[in-house]
């Protein structure tokens, strides 16, 4: 994961990710955590799909095909993705990349970019996911 602000690029996270999928909710989550930074994504889509799909990042997962993103930076500040994309190729493992914009409390925008390679997916069976 890299943070890009203007012409400056800083590597923030180079860590293995984990993915879980809840078929009852059609919700895929991908999380990577490190000592100083972390990244998390949620995608509202039914697995599996063929080829590569691009999911727009926003504030809600209400619509199928939507994604959300959240990041924790080395200074301890957490930011939500405000726009961007997550592109995923999904089979038994997840490959893909992301380019998401975040902004801080002062309104300074930055891009967070990165990729996933061969992330294993754990499928949660009911009743461990979905429902009430």
Q: Strand-and-helix sequence, N→C?
A: EEEEEEEEEEE
Whole-number mean pLDDT = 87
Percent in strands: over 45%
Domains counted in the coordinates: how many? 1
Global Rg: 15 Å
**Helix share of residues?**
under 10%
Which spans have pLDDT < 50 for at least 5 consecutive residues?
none
Largest sheet: 11 strands, mixed
Helix count from the secondary structure assignment? 0
List the helices and strands and how they pair.
Elements: E1 2-5, E2 8-11, E3 17-22, E4 27-33, E5 38-44, E6 52-56, E7 67-72, E8 78-80, E9 83-90, E10 93-103, E11 109-123
Parallel strand pairs: 3-11
Antiparallel strand pairs: 1-2, 1-11, 3-4, 4-5, 5-7, 6-9, 7-8, 9-10, 10-11
Protein described:
It is built from no helices and eleven strands. The chain has one domain. The mean pLDDT is 87. Strands 1, 2, 3, 4, 5, 6, 7, 8, 9, 10 and 11 form an eleven-stranded mixed sheet that branches. It is globular. It has 132 residues and is mostly beta strands. It has strands at residues 2-5, 8-11, 17-22, 27-33, 38-44, 52-56, 67-72, 78-80, 83-90, 93-103, 109-123. Strand 4 and strand 5 form a beta hairpin.
Outline:
The chain is mostly beta strands.
Primary descriptors:
132 residues, mainly beta, 11-stranded mixed β-sheet, 58% strand, globular
């Amino acid at each position: 994961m890299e943070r890009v602000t203007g012409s400056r690029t800083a590597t923030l996270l180079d860590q293995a990710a984990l993915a879980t999928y809840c078929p009852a909710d059609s919700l895929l989550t991908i999380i990577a955590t490190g000592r100083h930074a972390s990244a998390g994504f949620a995608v509202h889509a039914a697995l599996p799909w063929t080829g590569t799909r691009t999911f727009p990042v926003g504030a809600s997962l209400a619509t199928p095909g939507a994604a959300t993103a959240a990041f924790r930076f080395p200074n301890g500040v957490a930011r939500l993705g405000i726009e961007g994309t997550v592109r995923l190729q999904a089979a038994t493992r997840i490959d893909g990349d992301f380019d998401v914009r975040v902004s801080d409390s002062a309104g300074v925008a930055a891009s967070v970019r990165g990729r996933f390679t061969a992330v294993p997916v754990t499928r949660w069976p009911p009743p461990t996911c979905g429902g009430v």
